[in-house]
Design goal:
The chain is 62% helix and 0% strand. It is extended and about 55 Å long. The chain is mostly helical.
């Protein structure tokens, strides 16, 4: 009932979440396509990279620039304990290039 009340009282709330589902569909499709990669490890790697790329797109980040900066940071010894700093939503093109 609380959710229905919010929907009825706030005109900005949509009745469905189709816009969100359309936005995340490429992520789900890439993961599904990874099932046919030929090997479990390859499929997991493919799904990980595809998820990172789609997450970059959702956050309006250039995927190539993000991957370049992230891989460079890893090669240069970025500490594993600080892995959260390398996630797409923490990436800033002004800081990284």
């Amino acid at each position: 009932m609380d959710g229905l009340y919010v929907f009825l009282s706030d005109s900005r709330v949509e009745i469905d979440n189709n816009s969100v589902e359309r936005t995340i569909r490429p992520i789900a499709l890439n993961r599904k396509n990874a099932l046919f990669a030929g090997h479990d490890a390859g499929a997991e790697n493919w799904a990980t990279i595809a998820s990172l790329i789609e997450t970059c797109k959702l956050n309006s980040i250039d995927p190539m620039a993000y991957l370049r900066a992230t891989l460079t940071a890893i090669v240069n010894g970025h500490r594993q304990a600080r892995i959260n700093e390398l996630l797409p939503w923490n990436y800033s093109e002004q800081t990284h290039g």
